[in-house]
Amino acid sequence: MFDKVFWTFPSCVEAFKHCKPFVSIDGMHLYGRYDGVLLIAMAQDGNINILSIASAIVVSKSIESWSFFLTNLRCHVTPQEVLLVISDRSQAIKATFSADDSGWHPPRAFHAYCIRHMAAKFMTHFKLVILNTTYSPSKARYEWYMDALRGVSSGITDWAGHFNKEIWLQHCDCDRRFGHMTTNLSECITSVLKGTRYLPISAIVCITYEHLQKLLVTKGREAQSQLAAGNCFSQRLMASIEKNKEGISKMCVTHCDRQASVFVVEELESFMGWSQGSFCVSLSAGTCDCGFFQSLHYPCCHALAGCAAASIELAPYVHPIYRQEAVFKVYEMEFPPIPDESLWPECYGTMLYPNPLMCQKTTR
Ligand SMILES: [Zn+2]
């Protein structure tokens, strides 16, 4: 009798090796003849394209179900060290990560909360300040927003104080989030798969295969043409770098070492809103006082000002995940075509029957 199923594809396992080192996980209820929950894990490449790398259908969002999904995910798809998982604040997920044999303990893996889920219970005004607080990539900016939050509600700052800082604050996450503070990735694919929630399980597996097959062809072709054009970095990275370059003519750079690696960069005019005036940049350490250099793993506007003042190439200071070769590698291993069912070999395995306990009690 059917109980639960986990599936992934070899191309997904290969693709994840070249994606950002984090996964976003989420679950959604099925609405077909049988009850159940579809759990998914999502990843993102260095050109902000997203892809689902593993799925499961389970009875409910229980500890047992999440444990089944996360154990298989860890064993078969994401065995990498120092991996981050972003999820909502589900107690079942939290309990799964805490289990002694989960394989998801620091320093091998880390867990972070989706900030949108955390802030959801607050009114719009508080929500904005909370989001700005959590997104702050530097301690100085975080403290500025915390003071603002304290001014409007000490209750909220007390509530925030109950959480471990590294689980919800960008400036405390040791730069593992790559700027991702929410489970938006998984919610994107949730909307792609919305229509499949009424279908039988075999059809859902088939649709995820076809969706990924199409995605890898399309994105693989795009990445290949970018490589052929001689582009070193992904298009989105280059767009962000161009944006960061906009303000550097209004910055004053002071060299602080003979190697041209450390600078103090002063903003003569406020750029991109909030400013603290001057920022220490270390190119070799990949850090800036603004926090964006280390959080996003590519040079912020201050680091770019330092590079420009010293006539230094920025390429060594960009994370390899943003290189066009890495983006191409995500889509390199394609999905083979599935032969017509009449050509499939005879199956001698166990026959599965639907679980009557999972049958929907009423038609929704
Ligand atoms: Zn900076």
UniProtKB/TrEMBL annotation:
Keyword annotations from UniProtKB, A to Z: Metal-binding, Zinc, Zinc-finger
Residue ranges of the TM segments: none
Domain SWIM-type: 279-311
Metal-binding in keyword set: yes
Molecular functions per Gene Ontology: zinc ion binding
The keyword Zinc-finger appears for this protein: yes
InterPro entries: MULE_transposase_dom, Znf_PMZ, Znf_SWIM
Pfam family, one: MULE
Protein name per Swiss-Prot or TrEMBL: Uncharacterized protein LOC107490357
Species per Swiss-Prot/TrEMBL record: Arachis duranensis
